[in-house]
Amino acid sequence: MRLKDQVTIITGVSHAGQVGYALAAAFAREGALLAISARNAERVNARAQELRAEGARVIAIPADLTTEEGPNSLIQGTLAAYGRINILVNLAGGLTKYGPSDELTLAEWEAELNNNLRSAYLCTRAVWPIMKSQGGGKILNFSRAGGAQSSAPMMLAYNCAKAGIDALTTTLAKEGKKFGISVNALGPGVILTQSNVDSMKPTAEDIRNKWVSLENIVEAAIFLITPAGDGVNGVVLPIQAKGI
């Protein structure tokens, strides 16, 4: 087991069939002790029940991770349950504001940045002193493939948030190195989830050549948070489909 007894927090575990649940299920099979979080209490508790039915050891901590209180309650709740924290996966967020940039309201701008960037910062800030006192830890963020140069139109707030994730990752990697804390990010292309398929309606050829599977995401994440990835720090690892 590659993650045996590693206490792992995963944020953004809300819907079945999405990246968060796939990561949680895979990590549990590798022996991780899980704490999962999402804003919606009913959904995150349902995901925890499903994971327990598969044999996972998992607690669910509903929290609004865009607030000061939410990340603190997540970290303290995890510590209370397990006594330590080895890994933090900042997955919460996603693209919700799509449209012309000049029509983006201030509230929409702030919501997109808060959900994607602020949540990652606040969770990292909350866990940082714990990892320092333990002598190390691993933090995994989620960016997107191609960096700033790949920024597509109609996604201004999301693009800016993910550029911020890149800066957060590289900056904190340098600060954490002396404490044994590594900070990396995955930069996936379009991920093959049911919700993406439903909304984008790709062809079978598109899926084969242009989409990233959940298995690709899981294996890349496991590489970065296990000893196999020791020495990798400050990297935004792109994960693109074979046809790209």
Distance between the termini: 32 Å
**Strand count:** 7
Shape: globular
Low-confidence stretches: none
Q: Which bin fits the share of residues in helices? A: 40-55%
Task: Please report which band the strand proportion falls in: under 5%, 5-15%, 15-25%, 25-35%, 35-45% or over 45%.
Answer: 5-15%
Strand order of the largest sheet: 3-2-1-4-5-6-7
Mean of the pLDDT scores?
92
User: What is the chain-wise order of helices and strands?
Assistant: EHEHEHEHEHEHHHE
Tally of helical runs? 8
Q: How big is the Rg?
A: 17 Å
What is the subunit organization of this protein? single chain
- Structural class call reads alpha/beta
Provide a concise account of the structure shown.
With 244 residues, the protein is α/β, with parallel strands linked by helices. It has helices spanning 19-29, 41-53, 69-82, 106-134, 156-176, 194-200, 204-210, 214-225; strands at 7-11, 33-37, 57-60, 87-90, 137-142, 181-188, 236-239. Strands 3-2-1-4-5-6-7 form a seven-stranded parallel β-sheet, sandwiched between helices.
Structural description of this entry:
With 244 residues, the chain is α/β, with parallel strands linked by helices. The chain has helices at 19-29, 41-53, 69-82, 106-134, 156-176, 194-200, 204-210, 214-225, and strands at 7-11, 33-37, 57-60, 87-90, 137-142, 181-188, 236-239. Strands 3-2-1-4-5-6-7 form a 7-stranded parallel beta sheet, sandwiched between helices. Helix 2 (41-53) links the parallel strand 2 (33-37) and strand 3. Helix 1 (19-29) crosses helix 8 and helix 3 (69-82) packs parallel to helix 4. The two termini are 32 Å apart.
